[in-house]
Q: What sequence folds into this?
């Protein structure tokens, strides 16, 4: 196994507006990352943050969550040197009939830590290209996916919408409630992986992945849905707190939709996609999804009028316990 590439590190974002003194770890392979995790005495105390190329203008990639939050000081994990796991075999476990709905679409396994520029080169070598991209190509693929990086056009989704399957190392709980490191391949229902071929390869010892398909149903739903719902609520709350322009544009779009047919169609399409996303990722019922959206809309309006700045009963009643309610 390659020597561990790690040491003291001053992380800074691309704009050099934020920095943090930390330790970096640059695994060269999944095996190396798993071997490192196996040496950690108590995974519950581990603070790690995977960072991309630092192009986010918020503090999402900062190894310290908040400047004042010293307890969360963590190791910055850089993936730009990590090889593609199962480079030879990983693409052999796809179903031959995938995808039915989009017959022209091609599957391509990519390294999470590669830049969009590198991805473009790889695709070009296969005679492929992205239909729509952002204005820039220096971000990592995973950084762009994790933050919803998008190109132009209201009907073209973010880069994350193109992801059919994702492989990830996660720390979950074992049946006894202890942290357990898992190497997962996560897909929606009818995802690209053929469970039979995948399972046979696992039985032959060709890979250590656990397939989480059909995320919104059955056992997987029981295990992950509450986490997904909570995280989506938190992420949304943080977004509207942090980026008022996005919030105000959203509210403005409803006014436009009330008077203009094209704007109405676009907003309806957005809601349809949002509904599908929440349903798919959370596995929640129709009533739960309606409840979730209703709270989201209330938070939108309260955040827009800055109700939380007022010490009046109506404002407290309508704004308090945001995070619990969103989850
Ligand atoms: C010059 C410039 C141009 C831009 N152009 C556009 C544009 O056209 N459209 C657009 O929508 N946005 C644009 N952005 C925003 C940019 O695409 C996003 O901020 C994106 O997140 C940057 O990716 P990154 O690799 O730098 O990720 P980072 O900022 O380093 O990280 C982003 C998030 O990803 C997480 N992450 C990183 N690696 C992993 C991993 N391995 N596993 C799990 N999580 C991980 C981090 O923890 C963090 O939460 C631009 C930004 C800049 C500075």
A:
């Amino acid at each position: 196994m390659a020597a561990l590439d790690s040491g003291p590190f001053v992380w800074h974002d691309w704009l050099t507006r934020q920095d943090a003194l930390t330790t970096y770890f640059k695994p060269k392979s999944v095996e190396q990352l798993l071997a490192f995790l196996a040496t950690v005495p108590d995974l519950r105390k581990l603070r790690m943050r995977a960072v991309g190329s630092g192009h986010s203008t918020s503090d999402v990639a900062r190894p310290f969550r908040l400047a004042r939050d010293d307890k969360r000081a963590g190791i910055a994990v850089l993936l730009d040197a990590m090889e593609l796991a199962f480079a030879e075999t990983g693409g052999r476990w796809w179903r031959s009939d995938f995808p039915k709905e989009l017959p022209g679409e091609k599957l391509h396994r990519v390294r999470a830590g590669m830049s969009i520029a590198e991805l473009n080169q790889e695709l070009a070598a296969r005679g492929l290209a992205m239909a729509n991209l952002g204005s820039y190509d220096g971000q990592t693929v995973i950084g762009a996916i994790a933050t919803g990086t998008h190109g132009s056009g209201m009907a073209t989704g973010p880069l994350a919408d193109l992801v059919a399957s994702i492989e990830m190392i996660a720390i979950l709980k074992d049946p006894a409630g202890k942290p357990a490191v898992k190497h997962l391949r996560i897909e929606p229902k009818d995802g690209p992986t053929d469970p039979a071929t995948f399972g046979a390869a696992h039985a032959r010892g060709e890979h250590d992945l656990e397939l989480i398909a059909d995320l919104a149903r059955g056992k997987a739903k029981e295990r992950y849905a509450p986490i997904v719902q909570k995280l989506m609520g938190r992420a949304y709350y943080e977004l509207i707190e942090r980026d008022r322009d996005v919030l105000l544009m959203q509210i403005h779009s409803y006014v436009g939709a009330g008077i203009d047919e094209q704007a109405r169609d676009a907003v309806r399409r957005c809601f349809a996609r949002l509904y599908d996303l929440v349903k798919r990722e959370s596995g929640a019922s129709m009533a739960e999804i309606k409840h979730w959206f209703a709270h989201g809309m209330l938070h939108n309006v309260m955040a827009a009028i800055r109700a939380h700045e007022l010490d009046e009963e109506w404002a407290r009643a309508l704004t308090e316990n945001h995070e619990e309610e969103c989850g």
